[in-house]
């Protein structure tokens, strides 16, 4: 059983399109995150939800909109995709935000 | 915000060698974790260690919070240890918001 699973693993799309990435965790954690890893492997937090409530919202273009239907799911919707959005997006979860952080396998987004 | 510096940026070892990776941070923390990103891109949590020492097999980690650094020790390295090692910290005011260092790229040669 995969603890944190995200789909799709690869996403290739044209500029201007809208796309979504889904994430689910079966660890019973109450906090979920989206991270972005750029081409130099730098990891930066984008959003965090605790029990479906947005608690961290970094300086991210408002084309990015997270949605958490319940505490086990956190999806990421991206509107009007741009070339600079190409990166690997990781979903993650932890309990209370103060214990081990577990990552999904990542979604490689390529905007052409 | 808090600054995180990792050293060395790159490290090449022969199989069987030992190594020490360092993470310096600029402010007091109550969350510090080490991760390994393998060559396939998977991020694996190694340690949650805001203070003290922990060991897991050939890996161990020590955090000296008062001096604002953490060390990751890898003993008897294997080729499967290759990848990028990240340190991530959460400051006392925002433990959930982990700031990642730029990583140490480790290559273990057979």
Count of DSSP H/I helices of chain A = 0
**Helix/strand order of chain B, N-terminal first:** EEEEEEEEEEE
Provide a count of the helices of chain B: 0
- Uncertain runs of chain B: none
The quaternary state of the protein chains shown equals heterodimer
Counted beta strands of chain A: 11
Percent of residues in helices of chain B comes to under 10%
Mean of residue pLDDT values of chain B: 95
Helical content band of chain A: under 10%
Q: Provide mean pLDDT of chain A, rounded.
A: 93
Radius of gyration of chain B: 13 Å
Q: How large is the radius of gyration of chain A?
A: 13 Å
Q: Structural class of chain B, please? A: mainly beta
Q: Give the amount of beta strand of chain A, in percent.
A: over 45%
CA-to-CA gap between the ends of chain A?
Answer: 34 Å
What order do the helices and strands of chain A follow? EEEEEEEEEEE
Short description:
The complex is a heterodimer of chains A (112) and B (110). Chain A has strands at 4-7, 10-13, 19-25, 31-37, 43-50, 53-57, 64-70, 73-78, 87-94, 102-103, 107-111. Chain A is mostly beta strands and 112 residues long.
């Amino acid at each position: 059983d995969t603890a944190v699973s995200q789909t799709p693993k690869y996403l290739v799309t044209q500029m201007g399109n809208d796309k979504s990435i889904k994430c689910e965790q079966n660890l019973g954690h109450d906090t979920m995150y989206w991270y972005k890893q750029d081409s130099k492997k730098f990891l930066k937090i984008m959003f965090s939800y605790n029990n479906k409530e947005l608690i961290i919202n970094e300086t991210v273009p408002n084309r990015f909109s997270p949605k958490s239907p319940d505490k086990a799911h956190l999806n990421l919707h991206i509107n009007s995709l741009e070339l600079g959005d190409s990166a690997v997006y990781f979903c993650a979860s932890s309990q209370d935000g103060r214990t081990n952080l577990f990552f999904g396998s990542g979604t490689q987004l390529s905007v052409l | 915000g808090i600054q995180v510096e990792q050293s060395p940026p790159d490290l090449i070892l022969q199989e069987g060698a030992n190594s020490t990776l360092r993470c310096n941070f600029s402010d007091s923390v109550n969350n510090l974790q080490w991760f390994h990103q393998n060559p396939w891109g998977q991020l694996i949590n190694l340690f949650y260690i805001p203070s003290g020492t922990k060991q897991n097999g050939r890996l161990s980690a020590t955090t000296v919070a008062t001096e604002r650094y953490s060390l990751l020790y890898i003993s008897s390295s294997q080729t499967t240890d290759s990848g990028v090692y990240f340190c991530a910290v959460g400051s006392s005011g925002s433990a959930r918001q982990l700031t990642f260092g730029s990583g140490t790229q480790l290559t273990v040669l057979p």
